[in-house]
Design goal:
5 strands, alpha/beta
Length: 162
């Protein structure tokens, strides 16, 4: 089943976004509370973390970018990839498993600790921009160049996660 974005997410001002704004405001408050609480116990790991993420809903080409970075970096450094294990991401997990050394648990921090224990120098995250439980060395945000940031509103008024 292919889901498409609502058309109003690409239009700057519309009644749908305005109607959803109270829910968007509540969503924003919850994001900030989660971010604050996670940062209180943020972990610093010995493995260097490169995070390829996005702030938009939908595919932005993160997984192919992770493989490209892995291919270049693994020529000179011991590196692996990390993907949170969710059933809806099985195609991405299988793709990464085929082309990279992958750690995939339900908790990214557990995967990162495994990589650290096996003395990997770099861990490349496929998604994880909104995970504030550990420090990242580099954050790469992917967007769809055709759509940009849509109407630039947060969910559900627009396509932005944060």
């Amino acid at each position: 089943m292919i889901l498409k974005q609502p058309k109003f997410w690409s239009s700057k001002f519309n009644l749908y976004s305005l109607f959803l704004f109270p829910i968007t405001f509540l969503y924003f408050i919850l994001i900030k509370i989660n971010e604050f609480l996670k940062k209180l116990s943020k972990k610093k790991l010995n493995v260097k973390i490169i995070c390829c993420g996005n702030i938009l809903i939908g595919g932005t080409g993160k997984t192919p970018l992770v493989v490209k970075i892995y291919n270049e970096l693994s020529k000179e450094k011991k590196c692996c990839t990390i993907k949170k294990n969710r059933t809806e991401h099985l195609d991405e997990i299988n793709f990464l498993k085929k082309y990279t050394k992958l750690f995939s648990n339900k908790d990214r921090l557990l995967s990162l600790k495994q990589a650290e224990n096996e003395e990997y120098e770099y861990a490349i995250l496929d998604d994880g921009s909104q995970d504030y439980s550990f420090e990242k060395n580099i954050n790469i945000l992917c967007i769809k160049s055709k759509n940009g940031f849509g109407n630039e509103y947060l969910l559900p008024s627009g396509p932005l996660r944060e």
